[in-house]
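Q: what sequence does this backbone want?
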């Protein structure tokens, strides 16, 4: 009679805090009852750590005889292998697997084959873009942004009083020159800059008028909150914020006491009833000479064999799945596949290697064959025809999986946040994601590095705070919590490019981030 499968054996290794190499794995699979042998590890000095062939032989002997094998002696001196004394395990000592803390079955409890597809799209510009690019469209987009974010500021911030139109504040500024009578306004930021003394200066504009503002650097007075964050980081052009403060005695400057952003203090997560997992990748760059093909096949093997992989129902691909053609000067010298459609066909073949239980959701990025202006519609039907079971959406896309809200955005605007804010760097891209959530906007700056499409309703406003917010683009990697939202910076599958080498930037490739929808536990598996 055949023994248990590896999927049945593996949880018992985890429970006994043991790891098995390929030789040990083969020996376990050849045994008729390896589980009972493994379970003798506790209390017999085996583990935690790597289970060796020698350890396994000792456990097998214990299972047969009921006692440890005694080492030989020579003249009263003990020789041979000495079993370490039994010690109580440290309760928080993690088991390490792939150089990262291992996962627990209770955090990833449900196999993907046990549930059906449950996806609901809340926002996708595909088929809904109606802009003509005229001045009226631009004006409508900014008015919609100001109106929506203004309401969020009122709802989520502790404003000291009801906001007033800027034109009315300017007309009645003498009323708001005393410290005990604060004025409040909500508007859009123009020309933010730091003075030589470190103060933050900007203009604030709404539909009625504009006023000059200054936020003083008061770090020596214990300045904190959004004011401190903004002094250190700066503001983005076209940010929508609230200000409270007073006018100067001359009335030509508004002294800001506090800033108010649209993000609520903390988001309450939604937990799925069916606790399957979702995995995240971005920037695969198939067609590039630096695409990591061997590591892709290593991941495919893991998907087909590892128990954790069997919990993954969805794989979110957040843009730049191919390297594209003509994206930057000289790109043809760095391509292994020089035809755009062949790049997409090759990626389709690579996705076919995934197990049947995995549903792929794919959105475009700045290397893809769609318009560069965001929000971007999904890939054309001519490209989609090579893909058998992939769900195609636009960029960004807000959707739910089993009731859990996700926002997937390729992340091109991270370039603007790096250029515009002092605290955001390519080495820490999640700081840009925090700033996006704080502003409830994915790409506030008009005319920056990110081309924008002026739709009547600003499609880059974050209208609902997601449970999971994912980006890519910068070839970094992170998975952290921010005010109740899981932030995932998806890893790339491309090695360092010549351009990155020139900049001294080292990507973090081949990390598969996995989040369980029922527990919101996450783990990242390296394949590099």
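A:
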């Amino acid at each position: 009679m055949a023994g248990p499968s590896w999927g049945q054996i593996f949880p018992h290794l985890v429970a006994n805090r043991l790891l098995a190499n390929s030789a040990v794995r083969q020996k376990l699979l050849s045994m008729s009852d390896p589980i009972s042998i493994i379970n003798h590890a506790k209390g017999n000095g085996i583990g935690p750590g790597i289970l060796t062939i020698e350890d396994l032989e000792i456990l097998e002997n214990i299972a047969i005889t009921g006692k440890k094998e005694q080492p030989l002696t020579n003249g009263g001196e003990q020789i041979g292998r000495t079993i370490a004394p039994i010690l109580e395990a440290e309760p928080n000592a993690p088991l390490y697997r792939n150089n990262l803390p291992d996962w627990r079955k209770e955090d990833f409890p449900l196999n993907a084959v046990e549930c059906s597809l449950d996806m609901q799209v809340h926002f996708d510009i595909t088929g809904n873009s109606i802009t003509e690019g005229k001045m009226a469209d631009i004006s409508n987009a900014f008015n919609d942004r100001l109106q929506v974010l203004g309401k969020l500021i009122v709802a989520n911030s502790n404003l000291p009083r009801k906001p007033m139109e800027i034109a009315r504040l300017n007309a009645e500024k003498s009323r708001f020159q005393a410290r005990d009578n604060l004025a409040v306004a909500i508007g859009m930021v123009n020309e933010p800059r730091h003075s030589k003394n470190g103060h933050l200066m900007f203009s604030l504009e709404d539909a009625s008028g504009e006023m000059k503002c200054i936020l003083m650097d008061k770090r020596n007075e214990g300045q904190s909150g959004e004011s401190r964050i903004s002094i250190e980081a700066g503001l983005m052009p076209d940010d929508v914020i609230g200000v409270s403060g007073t006018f100067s005695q001359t009335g030509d400057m508004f002294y800001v006491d506090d800033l108010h952003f649209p993000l609520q203090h903390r988001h309450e997560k939604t937990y799925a009833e069916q606790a399957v997992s979702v995995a995240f990748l971005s920037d695969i760059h198939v067609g590039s000479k630096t695409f990591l093909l061997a590591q892709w096949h290593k991941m495919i093997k893991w998907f087909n064999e590892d128990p954790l992989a069997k919990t993954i129902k969805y794989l979110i691909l957040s843009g730049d799945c191919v390297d594209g053609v003509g994206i930057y000067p000289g790109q043809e010298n760095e391509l292994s596949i020089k035809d755009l459609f062949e790049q997409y066909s090759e990626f389709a073949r690579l996705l076919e290697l995934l197990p049947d239980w995995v549903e792929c959701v794919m959105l475009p990025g700045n290397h893809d064959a769609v318009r560069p202006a965001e929000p971007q519609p999904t890939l054309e039907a001519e490209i989609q025809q090579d893909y058998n079971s992939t769900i195609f959406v636009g960029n960004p896309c807000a959707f739910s999986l089993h009731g859990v809200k996700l926002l997937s955005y390729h992340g091109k605007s991270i370039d603007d946040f790096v250029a515009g804010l002092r605290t955001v760097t390519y080495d820490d891209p999640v700081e840009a994601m925090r700033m996006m959530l704080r502003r409830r906007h994915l790409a506030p700056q008009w005319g920056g590095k990110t081309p924008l499409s002026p739709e009547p309703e600003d499609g880059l406003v974050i209208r609902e705070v997601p449970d999971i917010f994912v980006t890519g683009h910068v070839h970094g990697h992170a998975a952290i919590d921010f005010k109740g939202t899981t932030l995932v910076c998806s890893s790339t599958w491309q090695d360092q490019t010549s351009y990155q080498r020139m900049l001294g930037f080292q990507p973090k490739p081949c990390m598969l981030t996995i989040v369980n929808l029922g527990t919101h536990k996450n783990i990242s598996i390296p394949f590099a």
